[in-house]
Write a structure and sequence with these properties.
homodimer; binds adenosine-5'-triphosphate; binds magnesium ion; alpha/beta; 14% strand; 7 strands; seven-stranded mixed sheet
């Protein structure tokens, strides 16, 4: 039975897509079968794998609105055990179109029921908002992974996100758990960054992943080559960190 | 007659709020009367000025839904010629509540008609999405300022934004102009950053502000003190750059 993990944070630019692309690659390189769903109209995770959808291709929008099944929409990638459901710009419209629809928060959950046991991991990259598309992801998943930049505005946004999570748990998805908080773009030379990291660890304890993702230029270069950093520059600090995160998420031993 | 400038980019984390807070401060310190409207449910620009709204305080949500006038909602700040209309979390709900409302994209424009000539500049900080709240900002403004991080994913998002702008120009706001593209978090040592900056200047020419905002830790520290960098550390490279941007936006001579 696949674990569905939503990668969520309404704060923008904290590393959601970078985590979705590189964690999915790390899990696939580790031998696990993975489905990555790009639920962001920006289509970043789709382009992070070098995929460009045409108007005819089934997308996440079609899966949520029920026009295509996840199996139709899942595309192969350069990694044998990874498939990707790409996003398209019409997801912007979904936020409005879903308002009047029956079971509007449960559409993705219903759609994913047909593929849950074909993958060990299903990851969902979310847009920087708490709208109906993100609510669909929070209603479909078993747990959520929260990338967190060690910055003041990012820390401020955490309370709103955790409140939304408990609302979803009460009404739409009672078993929703927190997979963990992931510190991203960490730079130990920066005092504010160190302080925020200490605050988060002091407050969330073992809910914070032991793996910390450093700021590493290879992570921001790799999408322009349509490759995860684990394939673009496997020895880079960014790629190594996401490899370690994949082992931690999969429950395998990580190096201390 | 005040110039209304929306600070927009659906790509997250590109420096919209940092620009809204520090450009409004720069204009106010330059002697101009300024109104800053925080239209993002994350309330970052509100907290960037050390403002915390209580449930009783009128907010941007109330102004858009017509429950309060901009004059009721505008609060004083530590800068004499700057007022701020703060955001609150209920803006998240506005994206859904506005769907069924008459003239749903023009609400903010209608509300601002009452205060336009009381300020020389009205700045609107937008959320990282192209939903109904951002559409309200695009329909209200004379021009838009697009902060752009020199990164691959940020560049990709530009096409979608410019297409939305031309749609808004055709149907809702015929005079909508581009104030300019602002390069943010610029780090000349980073090859990708230099390449993206060259691409953008090569493509958009004089639509790119001459002022470039460097990556500068003081800009990310100042919000934790509830102050713009121009007051927190006026001699810092980040504060000086935003001072220069304010002169450029106001049409005053800038240093070469
Ligand atoms: N550890 C890192 N080191 C250096 N750059 C990074 C790192 N993680 C992400 N980036 C870069 O920072 C920017 C923001 O990251 P990303 O787009 O993954 O965030 P996001 O949360 O998905 O953004 P959005 O809210 O727009 O969806 C991107 O340009 C990305 O390449
Ligand atoms: N020039 C800069 N140098 C260093 N840090 C910066 C700079 N500009 C912004 N930051 C920091 O980068 C992060 C993202 O900036 P900011 O929050 O202003 O972006 P945004 O576009 O408003 O994000 P969102 O899409 O979530 O609204 C913040 O933590 C901010 O403090
Ligand atoms: Mg993203
Ligand atoms: Mg912002």
């Amino acid at each position: 039975m696949g674990r569905v993990i939503a990668i969520v944070n309404q704060k923008g630019g904290v590393g959601k897509t970078t985590t979705a692309v590189n964690l999915s690659a790390g899990l696939a390189l580790g031998g696990h079968s993975v489905l990555l769903i790009d639920a962001d109209a920006q289509c970043s995770a789709t382009s992070g794998y070098g995929i460009r959808l045409t108007g005819e291709d089934p997308s996440t929008y079609d899966v949520i609105l029920g026009n295509a099944t996840p199996s139709d929409a899942a595309r192969t990638t350069m990694l044998p055990s990874l498939r990707v459901i790409g996003a398209s710009r019409d997801l912007v419209g979904a936020e409005i179109e879903l308002v009047g629809v029956e079971q509007r928060e449960r559409r993705l959950r219903q759609a994913l029921a047909t593929v849950r046991d074909q993958y060990e991991f299903i990851l969902i990259d979310c847009p920087p908002s708490l709208g109906l598309v993100t609510l669909n992801a929070l209603t479909s998943c078993d747990s959520l992974l929260i990338p967190l930049q060690c910055e003041y505005y990012a820390l401020e946004g955490l309370t709103a996100l955790l409140e939304t999570v408990s609302l979803v748990r009460d009404s739409l998805n009672p078993d929703l758990a927190i997979e963990g908080l992931l510190l991203t773009m960490y730079d130990g030379r920066n005092t504010l960054c160190r302080q925020v990291a200490e605050d988060v660890k002091g407050h969330f304890h073992d809910k914070v992943f032991r793996t910390v993702i450093p700021r590493n230029v290879r992570l921001s270069e790799s999408p322009s080559h349509g490759l995860p950093a684990l394939l673009y520059d496997p020895a880079s600090r960014g790629a190594l960190a996401y490899g370690e995160l994949a082992r931690e998420v999969a429950g395998e031993a990580i190096d201390d």
